[in-house]
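cron nightly-structures :: item 1 of 1
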Amino acid sequence: MDSQGHDHSIRDHSVTEQGNVLIVDDVPENLHLLSRLLQEQGYKVRSVTNGAMALKTAQTKPPDIILLDIRMPEMDGYEVCQLLKQHSATQDIPVLFISALGEMLDKVKAFRAGGIDYISKPFEAEEVYLRIKTQLTLQRQHRRLQQEIEQREHIQASLKQSQELLTGVLNSSLDGIMAYRAVRDDEGAITDFEWLIVNPIAAHLTGKSPEDLIGSRLLEAYPSLAKAELFKRYRAVVQTGKPLEQEYYFENDILKAWFHLVAVKLGDGVAVTLRDITQRKQMELNLRLTNQELVGQVNIDSLTQIANRRCFDRGLTAAWLRCAQNQQPLSLILCDIDYFKQYNDTYGHVAGDDCLTLVARAVMQAVMRPTDLVARYGGEEFAVMLPNTHEIGAIQVAERIRAKVQQLNLPHTTSLIAESVTLSLGISSQLPDGNSSPKKLIAAADQALYEAKQRGRNCYCKALPLMFSACSTQRKETD
């Protein structure tokens, strides 16, 4: 029923979202009529009869829309609307004037006061429904849009903050950081990479600024990379998604350095981190050299610069096991400088050290295979280990050793057997057994050396009895 008493009880079933409506009118009959009509449409309705109550109600629990009459005692609708627009809690509530004043000036005044629409009395119920529905729809859209704007502003602020943080991290990082986008030809093959991100450390390697590099092509700056393995590996990272990690040596006119490089797939491109490990590589090199020196000190005789007793013992054990496994013979020659004590007493210890060094060099020259081992066994005594060598081959080596030492022609006036330095040699050959040790081989060679000294020195003797039948096959020598 409208203001003329007509029944308009039309139910709008399309309303899916109920609104909260505040009706302000000093005529109870109008309040009752509008309340009933809107409640039938599913709206929640509150009603008051004067402006002061309207302001208090709206501020206490703001409605979605206000239907406001103009003519009211004490405070008219224009003043109520103006006061509503001045308060932060109510300024966004849409105010729809509904009044019997139909003059254009009245409507203009209503809009100037802050109203969003104007319905003249007598009204049609369907018009009221549609006007309210339209305003509520606009209000919801406005709120939704405002929320989206606020959300977007929040996202933009977060992105800006993240970008500033990322830029700060990139610029302060001690590692070089780069990101590339793959550049593809018409067939989809990767032909180059475009710089997307580069921090100052990475840019320094190129001699350019980050601003100059971003957007440029990798191969334009470094054409030689087109055939380099690193460029191929970058492409493989993009194609397979498998990360790349390697140590990479970088050299240009500005810098020579080692880097630990890590590259990972990033979209249709690759992100690269470079960490300078030049200092670590130098430390590793120094450590390697130091270790080599230590190994030399442990295994090399400081005077003669040939293997020492420690190295000989280890080498003999290893050769024994290897020959036992392969069923190969192993021979040993022990050599002793004849009357060396008298040599030292006659010429002095400095000359004695020189004599030992020269003899050691002569013995080394007589042994030809890289698998053989010459060592200072102790004092003036030397040991020669001959893997895969029968007794006959060992005898040949012993004869060469004697000849090399005699060719030195080192004077030895106090020798009882010759006018120059000579050697006595003991030879032992065995077929090693994996269940035994080379102690018998050493003992047999030592016994043979003793026999050589007993026979007058400056000769060699072979151990008896033989541990296996002498073979007539000559020892194979290798230059």
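cron nightly-structures :: done
Residues 1-16, 466-479 have pLDDT under 50 and may be disordered.
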